[in-house]
Amino acid sequence: MFDGQVFRILSTVCPPSLRALRIININEGDIRRLFDLSFIPSTDHLTPDIHVTGYSSLQKISLVLDTITDTLMCVLTSTLVNLTELDLLDDPVVPPQADLSNWGIQQIANCQNLKVLSLIRGRSKSWGRGQSSSFRRVNDLGLLLMAESCKDLEIVRLGGFSQVTDTGLHCILENYPHLRVFELIGMKQTSDLTFHDMVATSCSLVVVSLPAANQITSDAVVQLASCSQLKLLNLAFCRSVGDRGLKALSYLSKLSLLDLSGADITDFGLISLSKSSMPLVSLSLRSCKRLTHNGITALTRGSLPYTLQELDFSNLPCITDLSVMAFIESGMQLIDLRLRDCYAISDECVAALASMNYAGKDHGGSLRVLDLSNNIGVSRKILNLFQKPCFARLEWLGLPKHLKSEVMATRLHDQRPRVHFSFTTNPDKEFSYDTLSSKHRDHWGVEIGVGLSFHQRCDLCALMQG
Q1: Most CB atoms closer than 10 Å: which of 58, 228, 278, 285?
Q2: What is the distance between the alpha carbons of residues 365 and 382, in angstroms, rounded to a whole number?
Q3: What range does the domain containing 79 cover?
Q4: Cα(284)–Cα(307) distance, rounded to whole angstroms?
Q5: What does the pLDDT average to over 228-233?
Q6: Does 103 map to a domain?
Q7: CA dist., res. 261 & res. 314, Å (int)
Q8: What is the CATH number of the domain that holds 8?
Q9: Which pLDDT score, from 0 to 100, does residue 13 have?
């Protein structure tokens, strides 16, 4: 928790060159006292002008706090008028009496140079029976008013706006010509109408993330396929997306990350994907129950084996040892392989993975992440395969809970101190918002500046929804 006593020091020593500030676990009231000049104590040797100079230099601010309110938004946007990035995440324990409303959203207009806007309400806590945490006082009107300003916005990330409909969301796509990243986290009311007539919009979307948007169907995906610059598409648990949408995506020439977890796709969709020329690096098919061995192995044909590095086959009954061996034989250089809850996987599969080569050496190939959590088909014999020199590049390993023992865990840690071993039934819970944020900066910072890998986004979505 941020110590409120540091305000007196911070307000006097804030350097004029300060461009970015990030604070986690801070109260909304403390933030107001930090940036509202009327709260700053006067001193004999410092004038208010010095404080204003220090704060006005800020261009990027990221806060994880208890509650986002109208007052907080007003203080931040009126004091930090040169902001280019505003990133706020809250998680109130109880319904706040003073909550963010349309008026607070409208205050964003004070920051004319804003390029990045992220407003997310966490969903890890419940407010009681029949209640879910959300910004209930913000509706389409708030977004319509916001759309009249900040025309340079390139990144919009929203989460927990339960009263906002397709009208408000489509308004964002229509009014921000420079928009490249559009993420809606935990907004289940989003439907195909949000993406109606995408050809007519002037924005060139690079990243679209719609996790758990149950009303999104293949019609919306067909519209998104008109975005020729699209590189990352997260449709995790959009359960109405089917083969028609996947076929439309196969014509995208720049798509590199695709999350289809829980989608209603079949082997025909994967066959269409295998015939595409897209430079797909990451693919998640987690919980796509209609897939069979034939569809999965179709991914080993065409150009995909030369580009794919991350695969998530978790919770797929069709995945067997033969399926995994088909990918090994294709020469695919996998970095991240998720096989959680694949009950047909056995010791033979792990042995085959350990035999992979990278650049003609290094047993275990290029694998850095291997998830075998909850796989009852593997035995203790596989533990010997994770000793040196096998899996030389491994950084994270998920193992079934029935293999856990203090003696074995100690031995593995002693031999592989740089490898993180997980014996939990739900490894997603080990990730934190902070970890994911840092990973997303490292992963996408060079190329487009934003976006998580599909694994990270899916894990973040799970965290936000508890």
Answers
A1: 285
A2: 16
A3: 1-116+125-138+145-153
A4: 14
A5: 97
A6: yes
A7: 9
A8: 3.80.10
A9: 59
